[in-house]
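Margin note from the TA: students keep mixing up input and output lines. Inputs are the sequences; the output is the structure of the whole complex. Example:
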Amino acid sequence: MGKYFVVFRVSLAERMVYRADFFMSTFLRFIPIITTILLWRAIYDGADQTEIGGLHYEQMVSYYLLIMIVRAFGSMPKLATSIALAIREGELRKYILQPIDYLTYMLTLRCAHKLVYFVMSAIPYTLIFWICADYLPGWPGPMMFCLSVLTLTMTFCIGFAINSLIGLLGFWFLEVATFIHAFMTLQYFLSGHMFPLSLLPKSVEQVVTWLPFAYETYYPTLILLQKVSVDEALRIIAVQFVWGVVVGGICLVAWKRGLHRYAAFGG
Amino acid sequence: MAEIHVRDLHKNYRVHVKPAGLGASVKSLFHRTYKEVQAVDGISFEIEPGEMVGFLGPNGAGKTTTLKMLSGLIYPSSGSVSVMGFVPWQRKNEYRRQFALLMGQKNQLWWDLPANESFRLHKEIYHIEDDLFKRVHGELTELLEVENLLDQPVRELSLGERMKMELIAALLHSPRVLFLDEPTIGLDVVAQTNIRHCLQQYNQERQVTILLTSHYMRDIEALCDRVLVIDHGRLVHDGLLRDITERFATHKLLQLRFQNGRMPERPEEFGEVTDLTPPRLTLRVPREQVPQCVSHLLDCYDVDDIAIEDPSIENVISALFRQTAEQASDDVVVAETMNG
């Protein structure tokens, strides 16, 4: 494990190199939060009812804020692209040559990226949550807190596995940008990022709630919102675990099969 | 027992063929044509521990593909390989800790960080003991004279400096087997000499087995006694470098200086005239005619000085590659005629 700890440490150092880009990207991620809250305000003001999909404006805002927290764990910016690029441009070569497991290596990098992101965005998040404190549920009890930590960890694992799998398509397709774009669009809708899945027609909701996307973001958000019982939270985490194992397993198979096709062209 | 053992190794690629032009691009959306390319076509050789062997061949001959198979980057289509008793493409960590593949102009260091950070990462990845790391790191940085560049981000280094760092990264874990693919490509003469010197010293001290490809014959001449020559995926020569001249050089160069300014009126009768600057004459003479030609010249003219030389290895090898390329194109013509 020592080598992955050093990878983690070196990656932290590397993250600090492009300071301006880092601060800008962290800052820019908060702009959509504000615009979306304003958008929902306009929708509620224009509607002739106080509830949309059974949610008041305040509940919608709290849903949106907490889903941002969950997304911060599950989203993996540039992961799929960097894997596909490493395959296409030949950079993967160095990881095959060295006594290191590529996917564990990428997971370690991602942990370092996330740690830096959380540290850097702690202040703006605190500020926004302080401003919107009235809309949010109170602090969870110890049990719900532990379950929240667990569900966020599972969200991270599912997000990593899904994005890695898309990147590994690079073994079969020269260009995966379209896949990534289609996946991001699909995920935006199906994970509950755009709006709560409860707003969908019942028949559609039933289908969507079977997909891993819902367990990556939507259900964990319900746990953070304390909208579900402990039993339901445990069920959600169990299903998350199953999805993590299934997608992670497919990833490993794709990795092994992909290496048979790999020609190490380029780089 | 041989350190590297290769038996009847083949690698075929299926390559998408697309003629130029928009029409062909549209057509290829619906119907793709593939052709099978034999990058490596049944090569066999053995390399003993501590040997330093040159791997020569024109572009596209199959050198890099062979090195990729030996290092476990890609699977072969058929054949067997054993390196230090391991099958490379099984990619066992015990194997990966004992060899290195260095490809010129391709980096394995972290671009944005100082080389020292990457070296420390290598130390952990390869489980290098503290003492050994300090010793090898010290020796190599001193040998390559890069001590003052270790804390500078890699992206700010010149190509030559970066290549030296890459070489250090490849040698830090004291590999038993080293595959080098064009390690001096694009470097200036000083950097080339530096790297060559480092490899020479490293091989002498540690008896590392090295298989080296290079387009610079000086690299090969300086480092390797034995060479493997590969062309169109086939091994055309496996033996001493100097034997290449014996085997493939069809001519010798005769350099003559005549006394009294009296020279042959028709020097072309003796061989191909490559230089004629009275009183000097240089002739390219078929090897078997050299004794007869020399004796005739000495009998009939006052020769002040005479030198008989083999053509440079570089020239012999390029002639050899031209010859095999012509043969290959002849084969294609014959095959097409027969098919047609």
